[in-house]
Design brief:
The complex is a heterodimer of chains A (about 475) and B (about 90).
Chain A: H1 4-22, H2 27-50, H3 66-92, H4 98-122, H5 138-166, H6 179-199, H7 203-221, H8 229-251, H9 254-277, H10 282-287, H11 312-321, E1 324-329, H12 331-336, H13 339-351, E2 355-360, H14 370-377, E3 385-387, H15 388-391, E4 400-404, H16 413-416, E5 435-440, E6 461-465, H17 468-480
Parallel strand pairs in A: 1-2, 1-4, 2-3, 4-5, 5-6
Chain B: H1 3-22, H2 29-40, H3 44-52, H4 57-85
The chains are: A alpha/beta (about 475), B mainly alpha (about 90).
Chain lengths: ~475, ~90
């Protein structure tokens, strides 16, 4: 049994984690929040380390034996190895690669949960879940089974999400025939095995749960397309929380349970926000297949419609004269790494007295808030960056809407065309702006949803066909002249 | 602690999580994911218990391996969150 001070320490660490998330309600308090998080983690780790050696009766503090100190040494080495790897990755990673990094980190939480679950199965006494009769407590077996299953799904699902985001694997959905039947069958089998595990604690049962869960994580994510990744990454974020909570139940540890619940709800809420921003149900995203090859007929870009091509000089001239310019960045800006030159463009325009604002759609990019981080990296002040509902009314007063690397989020078909796959998705009213500049690599490609965009062919639209970074650099040169 | 007490803490924490996360500004959703990632590595507590236990060689090595993975996440997650948050500046501060 843990001493009372340790229980209070775990509770304190749980509270500090709550404060860490609370801090993120505004950029001004967020850095303090992160420090609370670190403090909470330090308390949880220290408390666990100190209480591992047996505590003599009537004492608060353990008396470590030389053997305990050897174990402590090994643990410190393990933490140091992980710490050096973690800090190195965190320092080197490019901000555009943040979605991959988060996916990779999720996979590690999942893997750690599986390993802890297996360790608890192999040494139940250490986890305090062994009944005097010599079998594992059946309730703990359900928690362990579920913890391992969720951990394994988080791991393999995140590995696939990582591969898709990092370009190691094609972002387009991979559709297996009969996949819904296979997936449901596997899920049922996992739950049945967890139930059976309470009756029979043979090694094969736990191994089968682990293997099947690895498989289902893999199967669930391969049919989901690249631009649905914000939902997937959020969902896996949520799973990593539930896995931690399940292990917290096994260990009766308040810090783990509170954290698991926080992270689990956080991921679930983010998934919900992302789905709502695409007007799609969570089930349809998870069922996958969206963003496959466009259906014959309506899908392909109808490039025979008349459109106007603009030049960097046109854009520079018109924006210099404008009063209000709204910039709409999308995933294409991240791919082209154009955020820094874009900020320079904004700075130059401001020197000409132009009022520059940035408009960000909730699903722009490959993870929630992806564009905000990239603009922050490029030193765009966060008070110039606006969310969809806060800025959408301003397009009517905007002289220029500057679309860079976004497409579906400005498609008016979402408002008018009931047959469109993106119908009902909230979009920016760029068509109300006096002039629209639309940076796109070529007229051939269509957006992720595979639908044509009427904005290309509007009277006030000028297409700027080039790599986003190159085009903005040219505009900057023209503005400087 | 009995199962019901633990379940109560869990359910209450889900509600706290729900309200706290809705109050997070959308601009900080990426740091939110990075920091939740870091704190979910509190699973290291389980890994430490497994590593420190005597009487099970396999389980203590599994535990140590889990300590390494969780530590990558803890240090990496908090460091990358700090790096991102340091970039958010308001107009007044420049």
């Amino acid at each position: 049994m843990l001493p009372a001070w340790a229980l209070i320490a775990y509770l304190a660490s749980g509270v500090l984690f709550i404060l860490a998330l609370r801090g993120l309600s505004s950029p001004a308090t967020s850095r303090k929040g992160n420090s609370y998080g670190m403090a909470g983690m330090a308390i949880a780790v220290m408390t666990t380390m100190v209480t591992q050696a047996p505590i003599p009766e009537g004492n608060w503090w353990p008396r470590p034996t030389p053997e305990d100190l050897v174990i402590l040494g090994k643990i410190v080495v393990a933490i140091a190895i992980g710490g050096v790897i973690g800090v190195t990755i965190a320092r080197r990673i490019a901000m555009t690669d943040m979605p991959q990094l988060v996916a990779a980190f999720h996979s590690l939480v999942g893997l750690a949960a599986v390993l802890v679950g297996l360790a608890a199965y192999l040494n139940p006494e250490a986890f305090g879940i062994l009944l005097p009769t010599g079998v594992i407590n059946p309730v703990s077996k359900i928690e362990l089974g579920l913890g391992i299953a969720i951990g394994a799904i988080t791991f393999s699902g995140s590995v696939i999400a990582f591969a898709k985001l990092n370009g190691n694997m094609s972002g387009s959905p991979i559709m297996l025939p009969g996949r819904h039947v296979i997936n449901l069958g596997t899920l049922v089998a996992i739950l049945a095995l967890v139930a059976y595990f309470t009756q029979n604690e043979a090694l094969w049962v736990i191994v089968a749960i682990t293997v099947l869960s690895f498989a289902i994580g893999f199967l669930l994510i391969i049919p989901i397309g690249g631009a649905d990744m914000p939902v997937v990454v959020s969902m896996l974020n949520s799973y990593s929380g539930w896995a931690a909570a399940a292990m917290g139940f096994t260990l009766h540890n308040t810090a783990m349970i509170i954290t698991g619940a926080l992270v689990g709800s956080s991921g679930a809420i983010l998934s919900y926000i992302m789905c709502k921003a695409m007007n799609r149900s969570f089930v349809s995203v998870i069922a996958g297949g969206f963003g496959a090859a466009p259906e014959a007929g309506g899908g392909a870009a109808r490039t025979d419609r008349p459109w106007k091509r603009g030049s960097a000089e046109d854009a520079a001239f018109l924006m210099k004269e404008a009063e209000n310019v709204i910039i709409i960045p999308g995933y294409g800006m991240a791919v082209a790494q154009a955020q820094h030159v874009l900020r320079e463009m904004g700075d130059q325009l401001k020197k000409h007295g132009v009022n520059v604002k940035y408009a960000i759609h909730p699903v722009a990019g490959r993870m929630p808030g992806h564009m905000n981080v990239l603009l922050a990296e490029a030193n765009v002040p966060y008070d110039e960056v606006f969310e969809l509902e806060d800025i959408n009314g301003e397009f009517a007063q905007a002289d220029v809407a500057f679309v860079i690397g976004a497409n579906d989020v400005v498609n008016p078909a979402a408002k008018t065309d009931k047959s469109s796959p993106i119908y009902g998705m909230p979009v920016f009213d760029v068509d109300k702006a006096k002039t629209i500049f639309f940076i796109k690599r070529s007229m051939g490609g269509v957006g992720y949803a595979g639908v044509d965009n009427d904005v290309f062919y509007m009277d006030q639209t000028m297409m700027l066909l080039a790599d986003a970074k190159k085009m903005v650099e040219d505009i900057n040169k023209a503005l400087a002249d | 602690m009995d199962f019901i007490s633990i379940l109560s803490i869990f359910v209450m924490a889900c509600f706290v999580g729900y309200y706290v996360v809705w109050s997070v500004t959308p601009a900080l959703h990426t740091p939110l994911m990075a920091v939740t990632n870091a704190i979910s590595s509190v699973i290291i507590v389980g890994a430490l218990v497994a590593s420190a236990a005597t009487g099970g060689h396999a389980s203590s090595w599994l535990g140590l391996l889990a300590v390494v993975f969780a530590s990558i996440n803890i240090f990496g997650g908090f460091a990358v969150t700090a790096r991102m948050l340091a970039m958010y500046k308001s107009k007044k501060k420049g």
